[in-house]
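RECORD TYPE: inverse folding
INPUT: structure tokens
STRUCTURE:
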């Protein structure tokens, strides 16, 4: 098996395992997954809200905010798991697309 095939198999395994980031914090009642805090959670954790974070908090709205498909909030865990996997697939496709486009431009020079 080639290195490329092993790489893509690893990526697929990581995509399939991505819902663990959703399920484990719920199971252990740990709140949000590490690093996925909103501005209110940051304020609770740190004690204050940094000015730059507050200023830029509305700059970006994620297409799959909180990994929940719009209109499907509050449904069973299967939906958030599917949204996690879908988000991972979209992220991989975007990264691969960027690398391919950059590769085309850089290889011509």
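DESIGNED SEQUENCE:
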């Amino acid at each position: 098996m080639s290195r490329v095939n092993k790489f893509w198999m690893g990526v697929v395994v990581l995509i399939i395992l991505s819902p663990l980031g959703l399920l484990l914090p719920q199971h252990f009642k740990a709140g949000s997954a590490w690093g996925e805090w909103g501005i209110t959670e940051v304020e609770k954790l740190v004690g204050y809200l940094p000015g730059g974070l507050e200023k830029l908090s509305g700059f970006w709205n994620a297409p799959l905010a909180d990994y929940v498909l719009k209109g499907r909030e509050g449904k069973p865990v299967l939906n958030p798991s599917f949204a996690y996997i879908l988000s991972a697939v979209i992220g991989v496709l975007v990264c691969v697309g960027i690398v391919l486009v950059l590769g085309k431009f850089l290889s011509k020079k």
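NOTES: Residues 3-107 form one domain.
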